[in-house]
Structure formats: structure tokens, C-alpha cells
Write a structure and sequence with these properties.
Chain lengths: 228, 832
Amino acid sequence: MRKSIVYESHAGPIVLDAVKAAFLPRSRTLLVADLHFEKGSYLQSAGNALLPPYDTLETLSRLNRAIAAFRPEHIVALGDSFHDAGVSERIDKKHVEMLNNIVNSTARFTWILGNHDPEIPATVEGEREDHLEVEGFLLTHLPVEAGPGQINICGHLHPKASLKIGRGKRSYPCFACSSSRIILPSFGAYTGGLSVEHPAIKNILGDNKFFMLTSPSGIYPIKALRAG
Amino acid sequence: MPTASITDNPHISSTVPLKFPVPMEKWFADQNWHIRDYQRAMVDAYNKREDTLLIAPTGGGKTLAGFLPSLIALFDKPAKSQANVKTLYISPLRALTNDIERNLARPIKDMNLPITIGVRTGDTKSSQRTKQRKTPPDFLLTTPESLMLLLSYDDAEEYFANLDVVIIDELHSFATGKRGDFTSLALARLKTLAPDHVRFGLSATISNPENAARWLGPTGSSAKVLEVKSSTRPSISVIETDARIPLGGHSPHYAIKQIYDEILSAKSAIIFVNTRAQAELLFQQLWLKNDRNLSILIYHGSLSREKREKTESFIASGAMRAVVSTSALEMGIDWGDVDKVIQVGAPKGISRLLQRIGRSNHRMDEPSRAIMVPCNPLEAVECEVAIDAIAQGHRDGEDYHGGALDVVVQYIVNRACASPVKKRELYNEIRSAHPYRNLSEGDFERLLEFAQNGGYSLKVYDRYQRLQATSLGYRIVNREQALRHRMNIGTIVEDAKIKVRRMAGPKSKRGRIIGEIEEQFVMNLVSGDTFVFAGEVLRYQGMKDRVIEAQPAPKHRAKVPAFWGGMMPLSSYLADGVRRVLADPEQWANLAPQVQSWLRLQNKFSELPKPHGVLVESFFDRGDYVTIFHTFEGRKVNNALGFLLTRRMEKADLKPLNFSITDYALTITTLEPVENVDDLLTTDVVAGELHDWIIESPMVKRSFRKIATISGLTEQRQHGTQRPMKQIMFSTDLIYDVLMKYEPDHILLRISREEAERELLDVERLTQWIRDIKGHIRFRSLPHASPLSIPSMMQLGKEKIRGKAEEELLRRASYESLGEELLTQVEKTLSA
């Protein structure tokens, strides 16, 4: 099964990959959204749950896998990379080191600021931006209206789609796409999904929608959801 | 073990000479009641401080027997004695506690006894709770969950210090399962707090009194068993109708006229169904038929407290003609006027059926009357087998096993909420609960560690702890953690639910909450959809603050809330019985003519299952191949077989898609045709072959979800703060995957695997079965589904297989139409 698909958009080609990352081949830019580093420890510090403390490590290891596959020259994290303002006090130094290793071994690394992380921990390297324009794409955290001819690539919404498979229904994290927008699935280990049928996604997605479902086995473009 | 069997005749009441207070003798005489032998025997047991299990038929004054010693003991209580709980009554059902309160209030009032009663359940209002904590009642009536909550408070020690009697009602429902384990730990705690109290267990149906008595007695000794044999046998028959019984599914609609006639000819009837969805549907159908406007009600656990209480009081007042109910009304409640029980759907177990039938005619010397309404031909056979088994006095066995370990974690936290506790003290207390008598020190250490800080080998997050080790012992770290724990006490893990607000009309701004339905169902509703709930058809308007708003709608076809749960496992005794009857036409005489012709049709089209071996039928149906293994071996074997066969089918490239089980059969769908099964059903089954597969299966993840909730890794209910958006709630599957990758030996994973294997699979019996059927496998390739296959085909709840079939179906669902302009190979572009 194919692990990635090239979408020849009017803003330029974009590769959508089953590891829940996107790649812009012309500028060799790797895009990931909603890493939510230290979400596990956040929930613990909020007195919530004794979650297995391995989510940051797992997210880092997924990121390394995506980097190994695409060898990007520029990596852009589309916001909500760090779960909350207290991450710098909780995160393991070794994990910061691993992260800076990634930043420094890539020609350029951009943290787009998100609602969870209006500030990136000071110990973490890489540039900070509110948004970025790369090729014909407008990269943001929250969905915004793209200019004419542009496509907005954003995160924030953690789209997932359920699909009637045989006689049952299953749901998969997905790329929610339209002629003006691509919403990336969330990348972090402890991030859930929001149904693309939810008004928060449905109402802002735009015309000519289609979905790219991701599963460990590959990526699957779906034109119309046959969700029951 | 000391056992006493009491005479069949409840009216001989002279053998145990005991002094009763004169006003009490007089009160009994005024009611025209005789104090029965076993009621005296309970007083005797109390005087001798003997823990006692009383097994007596419904309607025999069993509950009164439990309370009688306490009533006598408190008879001369000084008006201003120290206020704390003397008698604690534990019931599995909230409704039962209200009922007992009503029944006790009368003698207490009539005899002017200085006794106060308090009911403490999840339904108790907070003002009432506060009052009860300040001034404890003499008799406290509660559920295990509310009891555990009381034990988590720092005044628990004082609250229960003068405890004299603990009465556990419907003991059979506690003796097995996690809720029983949970209750046993609460009982162990009570024994520490008030070592001298007496335990009384009450039950109507128990097939294995020895085991139940050991569970009830303090560790090391059994309780005494007092068994009262019934002098009457219930009269049970299958409903008679000319209407055609559906070939599958669970709808009683075909017999709706007969059910209505049965209600008409009864003074008052309870109609038991097996699921909540069935209750809602049948209730609708009955009201469409109800041209005489009989008061027909509905009752199940998803209705709001107000709705339930209203129905209860309606039943108690005698104004009701019939109530459609799930198992929620199955136990204990003394509805004096009910003279008929109608069981809709298969009985599933003999003890359960007896329990339900016992709801009618609450006088032990008259027979109970029951009518059964099977919903498909297999259920019809099952009904006959059950009637036969009851006539022969057969009972299902209860399945006793070691206590569940996730429950221990919850108990540890509960204990540490009340006061600091030393490790050794905690270990000993837990081991004094019967299900945990063999808990190893190593397991205990790991559970304690998990309760304390998660027990992960990575220790970076050590500062986040639930328990704190102090010189006085382990204690809860702060009030927030205690609050969080208290919000989530219990062992019943439910799917996420959303409240339903009934609006008077489309314009109205206000409405009442009438209950809650599964979130999963809500997700599929769009504005304007209609659904049946709380006995009426509602139109979905929208959702506001996580509450569904809906208004009454005209009666027409509606979606029904998909209530999960309520899937009751069939007892293996009944499964065997059904297979015997099917195989032998000479035993069909009692079956309805249409069921007989269904069997003849099966014989003609395919063949009848033999008493030995297995019949396997395979056919093409709506896009994929279906293979049905008619094993008649029960759910556990069918489940294990499902895992084994789909794994082997995956290897054989048959592309299995999913499997589903019933008690009778295993159904597997594949994308490729199955031509023979001999190679699949080879005897070289090794547990290991299943093991790897199980770890990855959604089934273990389901077990994990429950275990994570009970042990407090994730929570069902949150205090104050609104429940987060669905987006933020990530599933426990993600936690499971991360834990599997980074710490595969974690205690919670071990518990999940063991539980899935124990609860859901019977590998040992499967191995034996595969050996037994060797040489007796009948494989039939058919043009379409056979009569015998239809009930399986209509079964819900499938086990999904993550394999090539999923990939292929995803690929098929994937649009190809957008064409090459959109989809080109990555490499091509990358090289451009």
C-alpha cells in the first residue's frame, strides 16, 4: 500500500504521508502539527492521571522517522508543539537535547506559535513565527483565509474521519482538504481526534473537500465520507 | 460448614423457642403474619454472633428476617443513645434501598420504635448526605459504591465504630465479578473498624452455597448456611401465537397482540427484556396497541432519577398494569400486586430466569406465573430447554475466581483517603477479603506502587504522585486527588453518555433532563432526526452545553438509542441443551409448529448440527464471504476460536475482515471464499499462537480501557470543570500503545491480558473442543444463508481484524475517480 500521496494543488505539489506529516517537495519542507510535547506530564501536574510518561519520547521518535524518510531542509511545526506554558519546567533535559539535535541538524526549523504555546521554551532552539508563507502555501496554526491562489495549511483541529468499512465503522486520523485549505492530523502521541463532521471543521473547510485517511498500513484518499 | 435446612412449610413456627418483645409479637399477629422458623433462626444466629447466609425463595420475608434481630436489639434503645450506624444494609440496586426503607418504615412507625433509617445511594441529595454524616441513622441502607465513598472519609472510623450487623442483600450478585471484589474489600474494611459485627447474606437463588458462604464469612471460615426450600414450582409457558416468529433479531413485535392480552388478563405484570433498546421499542409497540389506555410504564437504568422514582412509586401504589423493564427491576423489590412476569427474549440463564419469575406473586406458598416470548427460533428452543431445566430443579453455576487487581488499586487509594495506612496493615486487610486471600506480596507491591505514582520505571515525574509515603504510612497527597478519586469510585465502566433535555416544543427555552444516552449514538444524530427515549419519540434539535435538546415528535419510524451492554452471556448448560434438542427431532414435540418447520427447512437446505462434531456453513452474502461455525460452545470458546481462525485465515490469505460471536456460533467474514476448514481446525493450537495476536487485539484494549478507569489511570467523571471537548479526550488505546512500546511489563498491561484471556477466552476448552471434533467436521458450501445461520447473521458487535482485508477495503473506499491528475507517485515528483 502506498504510504504517501502527492496532491498536485494549485499552490504547488504537496506530499501527504501516513505518518501524519506533510512534505513540500519543491522547498523540501516537512510539516507537522500539534505535537503537544509533555501533554502527559501536564495532565499529571494538573492532578489528573498517572499517565505513562513516554509521550514526548514517542513523539520525538515519530518525528525522527519522518525526517529520515523525507530528509527535509526546512521543518515547520504548525503550533501547539508544546502542550502548555509550564513545559520547560517539566520536560526532561535529555528530551530537550534530542529536540535541539533535530533543530540543529536541519537547515531551518520554524516553530509556528499556537494557542497552547504562544511562547516556545527558551532552551529550545529554532525560529519562532506567527505564520509563514512557503511556495504558494500559507502556514498557520489556526485556520485562516488564504489569499487568491494560495492554500492555507493549518493544524489545531486534529481531524479524524470515520468510514464504513465492510459492515462496521472505524475512524482514522486524516488530512482534511479542500481547494483552499489542508488541515493536518495531530502528530503527538497523546492527541485525540475531532470528527470532520463536527461543525468546527465542517464549517471552515471550504469547497471541494476530500480526506486523506491515515492508518499504520498506509494513506487512503476518500472523496465522500460514507459515514453512517 | 454448618448447614441448616428448614422445613418446607413456612407456617410451622414453633421449633425455635425464642423470646420476642411482646409488642412485636402483637404487631405480627395484627398483620396476620406468622413469625417463620427461619426468621427465628436468624435471631438465634444473631444472638450467637454467627455470620449467616440465608437462602430463601422470594416472597418469604427474607429481608425482614435480616432486619428482625436489629429491630429486636434496638427495641429498648434509650432514646438518646450515641448516634452512629448500628445496622448497615448493602444492596446492589438503588431502587431496592428505597423499597426496603418503605417496608421498614411501617413496623417502626406502628410499634413506635426509636429507630432512624437513612438511605444513602448515588441518588441521595447532598443536603441529605450532609445530614446523614452529622447524625448517622441507626439503619443505613446503601449500595457498595456509596459505602466505599463513606469509607473514604476521615470520620469513617467513628462512623462505623458501633456497627452491629451488616446485611448483604442479593448476595449472589456480589459473589462473582468486580463489583463483588469491590464489595468484599469494603466488608474487610468494616471488619477492621468494628470487629465484632455479624454478617448476614440474603439470596433467593444460589447454586453453590458453599462458595457463597466462604465469600461471606471472614477469611478462614465460612458463614453458616440457612436454606429454606421452596414448596412450589413456578408455572412457565411459552406464548402461543399464530403469527410468524422472525428468523433472527430480537424483536417481539410479532407477538404484540398476545403480550397485550397477557397484560389484560393480569392484575399487574412485569415485562422483562434483555436490553434497554429492546425496552424502548417494546414500550412503543405496546402503547400503539394500548386502546384501553392501561397504565403501561417503562423502567431502565438510563432514565433520570426523577423518572425512575416516579415509576417506582407508581408501581408501589398498585396503580400500574404493566412495566417494561431491563434487569434493573430484577432483584428484590417487593411489588406485592405483580401476578405475572413476561420474559421477552431468550432467558440466557436459569438462575436469572428464576430470579425474574420470582418477581410475580410475592407469596412463597403460591406458584409464580410466567410467560416467555422468544424472538427467534433459536430463542424458542432455548426457552423450552430452560423450562425443562427448571422443572428438573437445575441451577447455573456461578464462576468464582481470584479478585481483580485493578479493584485493589482503587481500594488502596480509597483507604489512603481516609487516614494514613502502613503497608503491612493494608496488605493484611486486603488479604482478609475472600477473593484476595491469595494476593501475593509481589503483586501487592506493584499495585501499591502504581497507586502511588504510576509505577513506571522512568522516574522523571516522581513529583506527581497520588499517594505520599509518610512516617505514619501512605496517605493521599492532597484534597484534589481525594476529590478526583471520590468522583470515580466504583467498578461499573460505562460508555460516555450525554444527558437528554426534553423541551416542550420547538420554541420553548426550558425543559427537563429525562435521562442520558450513549455519546456514540449522539454523534450520528443530525438535527431533525427522531429517536425513541424514555418511552416517547423525540426529535433531536441540537446540543447545548453537552446536553441534547429534543422535543416530542409524532410517532413514526425512529432511530433507537444504541444502548450498549446488556449483552448477557448464555449459561453453558442452556447452550448444551439447545444443541441436544436441535440434533434430535424426537425432542421437538414441545416446540411451536413454526419452529419445527424452521428446523425441517434447515435439514432440507443444509443439515442439522449433530450432537458431536461441528457444522460449518459458508456462503456469499452482500459483498463478502461468510463462514459460520455452529459450535454451541458458548461465548468464550467462540471468541478464542475467532482469534485463532482469523489469524490462520490471514496467513492463508483468505483476508478475514471481522468476526462476531453468539453463544451458539462463530461468524467470520472474509474477502476470499473459504473452501474447506479442515486445515484451519487443526489440533496444534498453542496458547502462544493466540497470545501474540491477543495483545494487538481491540479486545485487550477494551479490557485495558476498563482497567485504566477502575484503577484511576483515566477517569469517567470529572468534578466541577466541564468535560473537555472530544478532541482533547484521547482514547486509552493511545495510552495502551505507548505503554506496550515503552513498558510492556507494566502491571496494568499484565492485568489487561490476564483479564481478557480469563473473561473472554477459554483456550483450554477450545483445545479440547478442537480435539473432540476431529473427524466430525461437516462443511457445507451454500448458495446463501441457511435458516440456522440467520440469527448469527443478525448479531451485532464484531471483532475487527487489522489485516490485509482492512487495507483492501480502505483501498476500495478510496476514491480513484479523481484520477491521475491528483494522484501520482511520490518518487516521480520528488525526482522532478
